[in-house]
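pasting for ref
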Amino acid sequence: MRLLPLALLLVATPAFAQDLTPAESTKVDTIVTDTLARNGVPSASVAIVRGGRIVYAKAYGKQSETIATPRTDAPYQIASISKQFTAAAILMLEDEGKLSLDDTVAKWVPGITDGGKITIRQLLSHTSGLQDYWPQDYSFAAMEKPITPQGIVDRWAKKPLDFAPGTQWQYSNTGYVVAGMIVEKAAGKPLLAYLQDKVFKPLGMKAIDQDLAIGKDFPQGYHRYALGPVRVEKPAARGWLFAAGELAMSASDLAKWDIARMNRSLMPADDWQVQETPILLTNGKSTGYGLGVFASSANGHKVVEHTGEAVGFLSENIVYPDDKAAVVVLVNSDFSNAFTSIAGQIADLVLPAAAGAGTADAETAKTAHARAVFDELRAGTLDRSTMTEDANYYFDATASADYRDSLGKLGEPTEFKLLRPARLRGGFVNRNYGVTYKDGTKLSVVTYAEPDGAGRYEQFIVMPAE
């Protein structure tokens, strides 16, 4: 599930409490429709909170092959944004005296590697050391078959830890699956049932299991190989997201949760504060991540943010708690950065912002190798020895042909550069690259590679960029 902390790129000023003006509403329409058109993303659902209330909600484009008119109440899969709800469930259970954030994992779920050294707090803050079971931005072969939370634990949470608990930050969906299992044991009921009772019903939200949000009445996910045709995406089998990202809801319903955060309602104020306080590593360094949310400040303004990625869906949720403002953008594609681009541009209206992004110092050899693989893909001559088993599964005949046909016609790039420093994810090293062409076309390349030895690619995905 993709991690794009847009909040870190925004410099905010105070929000206004009034409705959007006609000019602002027109600007939002233009931002969304133009961005979708440029990137080939079928649809988006947008909600804007200003002055602590929803002032704008609209759906755009093609939500599925069977939904004739886009609906604002259509539930999109929000994926990793669900993590903050899992974390909230833990905080509520702690308030009920049923567990403690400092309980060890071994107390609740047996058999996990070093479970006696990992705390629930470390699960929720991605500092447990448990290997991420889904670092890729595509569904791998095993995801064609249903799985249970215990099945995920048995395959990934019993491996050696990637690092000693508390010493590093590394995003781990596995940790949230374990956290969800703990919620169910402590609450004595399924995670979703607990959230319905404690969160969704009190806030008037409609949320369902994303595995059930499939069919003619629901938004459909879409995929694209490089700049190839936009295709209907095949959903993963049941059970693969659970507490790490199992929720589907409308943009407006997610905005209701954001308003509760601003108002410090539903949970005690100190629970919200705990969730939004970045965890420190054992060396005293801040992770920038609390319990299920990225937390930062921009020009003196607090920002709480998270993105999500499911098979065929991407989502962005940015909240300015102190300024009573939020932006929610949900799209039914798992390609392109249209969702964060839309959110960033709308945030400029809600909180006028000066966006800026730094680039990482080039890792010359790694960048050169990535460029070589990119050239192989556009030429249709991929050296499969540079790919892992999962990556070779992804580059089947259809994917390889779409990459060759869509990239080859663009010609030679004028620029291929590293966009940010490398970071660990799921036992792999994540690097993102930007590609630019003479005619202004821009592409994003998201890679995951083995950290040692051959350094084969687990993922090498090309998509449109703003």
